Amino acid sequence: MLKVIVLGIIQGITEWLPISSTGHMLLFNEVWPLELSPDFVSVFMVVVQLGSILAVVVLFWSKLWPFKRDKAESRRSWKLWGKVLIATIPAGIVGVLFNDIIDEKLSTWPVIAAALFIYGVLYIVLEKKVQIPVRVESLDDMSIKDSVYMGFFQMLALIPGTSRSGSTILGGILGGISRPVAAEFSFYMAVPVMAGASLLRLIDSGFGFTAMEWTYLGVGALVAFVVSLLVIRSLMSYVRKHDFSAFGVYRIILAVVVVLYFSLA
After folding, report:
1. Which of 37, 45, 63, 76 is the most buried (most CB within 10 A)?
2. Confidence (pTM)
3. What is the DSSP secondary structure assignment for residue 140, as one 8-state letter?
4. Domain-wise residue ranges, the chain
């Protein structure tokens, strides 16, 4: 149960920071593994994300709920959902087609370390050396093309160690979307992708868990939910004033630590 709680904390923190939640949880499980069946651990690593997306729904309920009395506000919410769903198509298709390959071939520490390092360098270079004029200052200004563009960057995050939030936010910035808008839209993009991934894992498992395993899933998701509430607010404040260079440095250092740890273990 202690490991489940720690994993929930890791998920709640790293899902929204550009440092890769999947990578951190897989690495943690390598160092201090859950002593449960491999099939359940695989499901847990995905389903625990439900707590994180619930935090997004709660925090941004006023923007996401489309059934408002005010027709203008209702139309805005429906348009937002349309953009979000379009943005999830690339990752959804690739995730369904290559899910087994990603699990079997890419969920390893060398791949995670490489992704941490490569994207860490990219974060620093893009933030310090590339200046992109901002043309989108609000969610209403985002076009369908912008949504598709960010969707392709979200697809890259299927590789463990990449970071879904980091790749989509930086993708948005490269496309001329302001950092706060890209961050907020990235949160919304997580809802259908993570909910769909969790549902698929549960269906594949046949929902055949013991009462204790269901408890682990519930506790992990609850912890991730509470931690996510705090982290999302903090990140939105952070991105308005800072770039991602610090996260790039963190990723590079972590990649080196991972290589040294597993090479010498």
Report:
1. 45
2. 0.88
3. G
4. 2-264
